Amino acid sequence: RDLRGDLAWRFSVTIELDSGETEYSGEIESESPNTYSEAGDEWDHTISLCSEWLTYRGSEISLYYGGGPRVSYTNWLHSYRSFGFSGGYVNDWNHENSGQSLHLGVTGILGVQWTPVRWCTIHAEYRVVAGYVSESTGTRRWEAYSSNPYTLEEDRTTQGFELDPLGVRVGLSIYFGSM
After folding, report:
1. Which residues fall within 8 angstroms of residue 42, CB to CB, at 6 or more apart?
2. Residue range 116-175, pLDDT digits in tens
3. CA distance 93 to 85
4. Residue 162 burial (CB count, 10 A)
5. Cα 69 from Cα 32, distance rounded (Å)
6. What pLDDT sits at residue 75?
7. 54 with 66: CB under 8 angstroms?
8. CB-CB neighbours of 114 under 10 Å
9. Which of 20, 103, 145, 179 has the most beta carbons within 10 angstroms of its beta carbon?
10. CB 14 within 8 A of CB 50
11. Which residues of 64-75 are buried (b: 16+ CB within 10 A; e: fewer)?
């Protein structure tokens, strides 16, 4: 929303959803047969809220800069299962990695915008975020059907400061109503 000719406020909600599956199999050459296979599932989701104040310099081609607060939450689960046969032994390994993170920070923006017509702009911007991050992860590994089965569980919490480039975004804005 334009507040006046050279100042604007922008609010954005970003949702990212990722999921995937992996499969591997193979054979290792040796005196005794060694085969293995691995399959896994991964999913991640992130939601970010950002409020930004932007200052513009120029008319048809404008340089703009600004920033504002940003909050982001991520949750993930990656699980894998490996199965192998080696030297007469059957091995069955399982691995799960899960976690969540919370990011509280400030986004900085530097961009350029071209206005070919009054109701349309094309823009490109570079963004970076600085702030606090808190992350909790859990790892669980277990092995079954072997000569020495085991279970390992590990939980970790980390907190600290981050400076993270968010990369370049290119966009098109269409304006409706009075300008």
Report:
1. 18, 19, 20, 21, 22, 76, 77, 78, 79
2. 998 899 999 999 999 999 999 999 888 766 566 678 899 999 999 999 998 999 999 888
3. 12
4. 13
5. 60
6. 96
7. yes
8. 13
9. 103
10. yes
11. bebbbebebebe
The tokens for 29 are: 């050459």
Over 60: is that where the pLDDT of 71 sits?
Answer: yes
Q: Name the one residue in this structure whose structure tokens are 């949702």.
A: 15
Question: Residue 148 in 3-state DSSP?
Answer: coil
DSSP code string of 18-53: EEEEEEEEEEE-SSS-EEEEEEEEEEEEEEEEEEEE
Q: Can you tell me which residue has the tokens 């993930």?
A: 76
User: What pTM was computed for the model?
Assistant: 0.73
Tokens of 79: 């699980």
- Cβ-Cβ contacts under 8 Å for 138 (sequence gap 6 or more): 96, 97, 98, 99, 153, 154, 155, 156
